[in-house]
Amino acid sequence: xxxxxxxxxxxxxxxxxxxxxxxxxxxxxxxxxxxxxxxxxxxxxxxxxxxxxxxxxxxxxxxxxxxxxxxxxxxxxxxxxxxxxxxxxxxxxxxxxxxxxxxxxxxxxxxxxxxxxxxxxxxxxxxxxxxxxxxxxxxxxxxxxxxxxxxxxxxxxxxxxxxxxxxxxxxxxxxxxxxxxxxxxxxx
Length: 188
Fold this sequence. Notes:
By secondary structure, the protein is an alpha+beta fold. The chain has 2 domains: about 80 residues, Winged helix-like DNA-binding domain superfamily/Winged helix DNA-binding domain (Arc Repressor Mutant, subunit A, Orthogonal Bundle), CATH 1.10.10.10; about 80 residues, Winged helix-like DNA-binding domain superfamily/Winged helix DNA-binding domain (Arc Repressor Mutant, subunit A, Orthogonal Bundle). The chain is about 50% helix and about 15% strand. The protein has 9 helices and 5 strands; from the N terminus they run αααββααβααββαα. Strands 3-5-4 form a 3-stranded antiparallel beta sheet. A hairpin with a 2-residue loop joins β1 and β2. α2 packs across α3.
């Protein structure tokens, strides 16, 4: 099959996907439509062609590898413009409590609701429910402790939303502490 035909199909798959799409998902979709051997090699060649095509200054979007998949995103130069639109449309903002809960889950996952509440010091039922509804967290399973409480972890949508390939890219405490938050004088 001609490379340009496969490239266009892959481009359509990436464009139509709400979240990042993996090479395996692309392969499954293409194998269902075309019965072709060595299609995996052609997929990687097509991804390189698409990435090169959208790297041109004529396009406001680019192909980005996120969360072990591919997604079209706006180029960084347009982030402020897009951010302004998002600010006007953001009726579904997360509350401070939901952000705290999400941060705890992201850094301590998998974690039970009781552990979240022990860290926050308040009931977290509503925050956990809102995060599940927004699909930013998911149920990982059940803990092997008495009562078998539900374990929560971040979802792939969380990874896409915060543009992370893996959890090691989360900011570390040393990256976000400010000097005005320290006590005492620094010794030289």
